From TrEMBL:
This is Secondary thiamine-phosphate synthase enzyme. InterPro entries: UPF0047_YjbQ-like, YjbQ-like_sf. PANTHER family: UNCHARACTERIZED PROTEIN YJBQ-RELATED, UPF0047 PROTEIN C4A8.02C. It comes from Actinomycetospora succinea. Belongs to the UPF0047 family.
Length: 136
């Protein structure tokens, strides 16, 4: 198994950050043509998703998360910025990990699929993503 951590700057606002390029580079450099790329976000307030980006789907995802998880005072978890408790519920809806097949050294994603970090927590502007390659 080969592993690496990358840092992703998410800023101080909700974001869907495309990390496909970093994942593809890691998979290509893994030293084996076929296997699984495992992507894990070791944070209690972020997740990873495979989604189309650039055509509005990333904004649609954030809009739906705002509807499902409003940033208000209803949350029992209350430290951090107002409504921060919702950020701790996010990983139950957008999982903190995923696996992507790698075939011939390339991510086996569909035409419009991208690997994305989903972060609704503006209190932490930088995130760590752990990439692991399991050779097949």
């Amino acid at each position: 198994m080969h592993s690496e951590e990358i840092e992703v700057r998410t800023g101080d606002r909700e974001t869907v950050r495309d990390i496909t390029r970093e994942c593809a580079r890691f998979a290509a450099d893994a030293g084996a043509p076929d296997g699984l790329l495992h992507v894990f976000v070791p944070h209690a307030t972020a997740g990873v998703a495979i989604i189309e980006t650039g055509a509005g789907s990333d904004d649609d995802l954030l809009t739906q998360l705002r509807d499902l998880l409003p940033a208000d005072e209803r949350w029992s978890h209350r430290h951090g910025s107002p409504g921060h408790g919702r950020d701790h519920v996010l990983p139950a809806l957008v999982a903190p990990s995923m696996s992507v097949p790698v075939i011939g050294g390339r991510l086996a994603l569909g035409t419009w699929q991208s690997v994305c970090l989903v972060d609704t927590n503006g209190d932490n502007p930088t995130r760590t993503v752990r990439l692991s390659f399991l050779a097949g």
